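Hi support team,

I'm opening this ticket because the web form for multi-chain structure prediction keeps timing out on my end. I have pasted the exact lines I submitted so you can reproduce it. The total is 718 residues across two entries, so I didn't expect it to be a heavy job. Is there a limit I'm missing, or should I split the entries? Thanks in advance, R.K.
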Amino acid sequence: MELRFKNVSKKYGEVFAVNDVSYSMETGVYGLLGVNGAGKTTLMTMLCAVTRPTTGEITWDGNDIFKLGERYRDLLGYLPQNFGFYPDLSVSDYMMYIASIKGIRPAAAKKRLKELLEMVGLSKYRDRKMKALSGGMARRVGIAQAMLNDPKILVLDEPTAGLDPSERIRFRNLISELAADRLVLLSTHIVSDVEFIAEQIILMKAGKFFFTGTSDELIAGMEADVWNCKVFGNKVNEYMQKYPVGNVKHVSGGVELRILSKTPPSENAVREVPALEDAFLLYFGEKAGDEDAEI
Amino acid sequence: MLKCELKKFFSKMTNKLILAVLLLVSVIISFLAVDSMNYSDTGEEFASGTGRITVGRSRTSDKNKWKGRLTPKKIADAVGNYHKLEKADSESVWSDRSVKEEPLYLDILYFAANIYQTESDVVHADLDRLAEEDIEHIYDTYADNLQKVAKEYGETPEQEKLLREQYGKIEIPVTYEAYDSWKTMATYAEMYILILVVVIGFLAAEILGEEFRNHTEQVFFTAKYGRSKAVRNKIITGILTTTIVYWVGIGILSLISFGMMGVSGYDTPYQMEDPYNMYIVTQGQYYLLIVVCGYIASLLSASITMLITSKMHTEKIAVFIPIIMYWVPLIMGNRLSTMTKVFYFLTSALVNIDKGINYMTFFQMGNVVIRLIPFVMVLYAAVFLILLPYVYRSYLGYDSAKHSHRESRKRCRMERKLEERSI
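Hello R.K., no limit was hit. The queue was backed up. Here is the completed structure from your submission:
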């Protein structure tokens, strides 16, 4: 069970959205991290055989996914970033429709639908019209539809977009449960989404992969330490211009800053245990965002 | 899968509204048709109120006193009766005083008068020139004139042969039964069909366009059958809903209208209206011809709007196509048809059978001669069938990159700038 892409590029006019990336994935959770416009969504649509790469090839167990066609899509579950639905269908009718185009027989689909709605906590909303669902609920239906065919490859593009913090936690737990014997590719620009569940992290920037490895490897490779220091309020801007600054916390008598630096930024600076978010800040030069975007 | 697709179609609020409006329109047109048959059974006043609902039946019932084979004697009786009344009353045959009796055999008078009138562009034959003594030989004259018309309008030996073959099928003497309901409905059905073809085009376009409109295309195309059976089912749903909407609409219209006006005259030959018409059909068959052509027009409308939607990934433009296909040529055709025969063969011919049946127009290829109506029926049914694989292929050809190419380029550049700034 291997999804491999080799020298894959996707060009829009003169711009490379994805530029010559190669990688191989097996079972487990893969977190694809990058800022808005890094090329994550383009890569995902190619992995889902919605978009053809300009150059390069994508294979599943050695076979071209575009040639595999139905056989490949049968293994696939996909939640796109802009998850759309049929507004006049009820949740269960929507799921039954998706089940039908996924080739699941009605009897099996009904059973699976019941299980999945329970899993995403929407059992009591099964007869509610899709247009009447909140953004978070619709997103959960999106996850459920991706799981209908019990996919071997589950591709989730910004799955937590629009979810509130409690739904986000619930979602992370759900992904962990689902990841047992399948390949889960999770694209996000929210570090906390992948920090605890992704076994492998892929950092993507300007259409290229510039880091692949575990969370620990990524943190260990950081060429800076993480410091916590307390400064006066009027000095905050000065520090922010000088160092990459993560958290800014107002406390009595000043402001606490989380700073990335090779040397202690101040005399009272205390070394902290680095986290994935710090690596994100270091490599992307900005704090992990929370906006929704795609490319 | 098909069941789910149909369920999706019928659960859409817009579609429900459209179908409800269509139902209302069919009821309104039915009543307009029934209401168009003014007739007084008292000889004094026109029926009013609910009395108008049964007026069609009363009229038919009275006219059917003349039902049966139109022998020269029966026609002569009608002509004699007419001249007697004319003499007695110098006023028009349409005067209130004689409104009950005189129109009853008017169909027969016009049939007789039209036999002596071989020019197809004459709208009203002259009833006053009908002479009782000539009627004895009316069918001899008719037979002679049929030969003359065949020679005159058959521009090639093959066309002339076809006309002679068609005219040979006319049963002489013709059999008459009042056919007012069929005649009325031919006009009103065409009016309703003109609405149906546009609405059906819109509904079919919606079936293929909703994925793109609702942004569900990526889930759809990544599903196992998203690039095969599911697309086929969408197209089948388009055809099925076209069929259901069309026939239910026509069914309701026919049921209400014929239910009130009756179905008398189904077997009356169309030649009662136009003795030299080359289409040898009964009044009932003529109505069926109109609705079958309307069905072909609806299927064509559906397939073209589906094709355009699948190519453009939006139904916004496709929905105007049926108007261009069927309404615009009808409006322009009245002026331009005198200039070129091409207009006879446009798609609008399918929804204008009432006019098309009167054209002595042929399509000839080698020795094969086809009349206008069968030609457009076969041509556009074939076009409909040929388009289906293209609809399928063009829907399958979806590539999200192409679809959002411009947008993505713009976004990509913008994101790069943002990144560069952050670095």
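A quick check on our side: The longest helix of chain A spans residues 106-119. Let us know if the file doesn't open in your viewer.
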